[in-house]
């Protein structure tokens, strides 16, 4: 069993004087596909920010493996209208995923340009590299943002509500791309999503959050629990 990339033990995260997420324990290993589900306001985004290192734990411990510290986390944020209109080419958006590693150098290195090219190829968007990002279809935009996230790392991808606004066929395309990266290339995936019907097909682990953890374990076990059956039945 490989060492976890990320491990939380009884961790709390919150803002100012109050904790929003309490007593969360989870681990993400290479090859895992973990989905975080829960009603609106249950603390999913807060937990995500904590795992990304944007919030300090107010209790418990958060362990990040040396491997992940070196390679970083690839983050796919929720798409905002401003991002959708971003006036840059596909190539520019993808290579901007290397920014975290660039430090103060004013130009991208040859290695970074190669990394961007490899990831555009991986996502099948090489032909679009000179196209303007804002002119792309929803699915092409999503592939561009995944390629960008992979420039930061190919160890762990964190995705926040990634299928919001995508049509059904683009959604299936998105899941195929992520599943390929996860199964064939062993990229660990951590996804916040409401799309429970697809999650139970795609993921291997589920964490159901309602401030604290209602369930954490395998998808198969989740389907047998009362909260799993209720959530699956309700579709949300
Ligand atoms: P979810 O992603 O499940 O919808 P959030 O983590 O966004 O849940 O929100 C959980 C709670 O944390 C909410 O009550 C929300 O008002 C509060 N919250 C979220 N962001 C902040 C913030 N920046 N400052 C203070 N409270 C916040």
From TrEMBL:
Keyword Transport: yes
SMART domains: AAA
Keyword Transferase found: no
Database matches in Gene3D superfamilies: P-loop containing nucleotide triphosphate hydrolases (3.40.50.300)
Domain ABC transporter: from-to ranges: 6-236
MF-aspect GO terms: ATP binding
Alphabetized InterPro entries for the sequence: AAA+_ATPase (IPR003593), ABC_transporter-like_ATP-bd (IPR003439), Metal_Ion_Import_ABC (IPR050153), P-loop_NTPase (IPR027417)
Protein keywords: ATP-binding, Nucleotide-binding, Transport
Similarity comment: Belongs to the ABC transporter superfamily.
Protein name: Metal ABC transporter ATP-binding protein
Organism: Enterocloster hominis
